[in-house]
Amino acid sequence: MNLKIWFHSRLLGRKIGRYSYSAFRIVSSLPAIYNLFIVVFTLCRWALAEGYGACLINRPELVQDMVKQVKHQVEDPRFSVSIKIRIHDDLTRTVDLCRKAEATGVSWITVHGRTVEERHQPVHYEAIKIIKGSLSIPVIANGDIRSLKEAENVWHTTGTDGVMVARGLLGNPAMFAGYEETPLKCIWDWVDIALELGTPYMCFHQHLMYMMEKITSRQEKRVFNALSSTSAVLDYLTDHYGIDWTS
């Protein structure tokens, strides 16, 4: 199995101690892990106020050091270390950041095509295309991809080596299978997996809220989102979708 480990930038952004590097070394030794993903991206207000998260795009030397120190802890030369970033208003600064990361040995870069200040504005796919043309390593495009068709369009528009999807897949895990909305079979599978693994209720419920966004009315959302126990969720799904979880 191949897995990705996401080390959140609040762990890495302002101070990286020897314990963090030890964690990288331990994780990279696991047989199923092949990539460490440094997220220089988060927009959480407390992270930005502390000067890390997405603010790190303004500190390319620190990002370089983060990549260098992480790679130093990984003995397997086949192991990859990647970063995810937002863009600057002045795109030359983003290109400079990416080139410095590339020179330090980062394996690939994911670019979310918005600035730190932008939230729901259109994604700057042309900016991602320029960054891709400035680097030799793989570049992955990210931002506002909510269907398989959009994924293909973004891939062709940016000329990148691939696309990364976040919220689109939360809302429809079957997106890359060509579904426009989450099929009931996908919901059934998630419930089976969550029950088998003992997934905490908040995570279990939140994922169902995402997955059922397009297939429920506003009133149904109010009712479902207010449920507070696994048994209540199972009863709701049984009553509304005829799913027998005891069989």
From TrEMBL:
Keyword Transmembrane included in the entry's annotation: yes
InterPro entries in alphabetical order: Aldolase_TIM, DUS-like_FMN-bd
Record's keyword annotation contains Oxidoreductase: no
Keywords: Membrane, Transmembrane, Transmembrane helix
Domain DUS-like FMN-binding, chain residue ranges per copy: 50-217
GO MF annotation terms: tRNA dihydrouridine synthase activity
Organism: Camelus dromedarius (Dromedary)
Transmembrane segments: 21-48
The protein's name in its UniProt record: tRNA-dihydrouridine-like
